[in-house]
Write a structure and sequence with these properties.
Blueprint (H helix, E strand, L loop, with lengths): L6 H15 L9 E5 L2 H7 L11 E2 L11 E5 L12 H4 E6 L5 E7 L10 H13 L7 E5 L2 H9 L4 H11 L3 H4 L5 E3 L7 H10 L5 E4 L3 E6 L2 H24 L11 H10 L11
Parallel strand pairs: 7-8
Antiparallel strand pairs: 1-3, 1-6, 2-5, 3-4, 4-5, 6-9, 8-9
Amino acid sequence: MSIEQSNCIRRFTRLCSDGYEQGWHEGNGGNLSYRMSAEDIEVCMPYMDAKGNPWIENGVTVPNLAGSFFIVTGAGKYMRKVSIDLHTNIGIVEINQDGTAYRVVWGFTDGTQPTSEFCAHLLTHSANVANGHEEDRVVYHAHVSNSIALANVVPADSRTITRIIWKSMAEAIIMFPEGIGALGFYAPGSTDVAHANAELMKTHRCAIWAHHGAILTASTFDQAFGMMQTLEKSAGIYTACRAMCGGTEPLQLLTDDQLRAICASNDIKPNTAYLD
């Protein structure tokens, strides 16, 4: 079996293609990373070779990820090209024993390095491990247009965004019981957005970045796609309903009691800070 046939690479590639087909990855927009399991590493190790590649500073320190391996999309690369030019557009990197640097051990054959948002990915993975959510191995960032539009017309704060997403579609609170984090504008690829997002990810699994998109963490690639699709659909429903109401608040959003009933019937404990 070649590395291309491994489950982790095939599923990683599929999410890149699925996201592109949804229209979430214009140009080189968006990025994806996956913290490999012991089984993944065992399968892929015969194909990994540092080849004297240098250690490169992360830009952030993540000691609880020391020795980890990540599959990650490349800086400036296109999600639509991952499936047709795998070795150039994605790579596997190893984190050093101090959690301060990485080196390429597979892929990135043209000398590419990980996505410019790699700091945000690493800090999110680190938060998962610190919070005991080690099963959440996927971090996915997409330029989801309805969610970007939403943060252009309502305040980019977590409570406002959460209540809109929850109240616009019944399934949203099931998918995001802890709520949706929200950040105001930060320069893309900056360590500032990485650190601000890391704080949100201590208590949320998904956040909207104003004027930029959304980022989330999940246990599987299918779950990551489903979460992003649910977020984007709910945001789209709200913006469409608001437009139909002449720009005013939609009249038939779910009530807080209805949200509680949804949670009760699905044995879900919502974040009560976002309920009235």
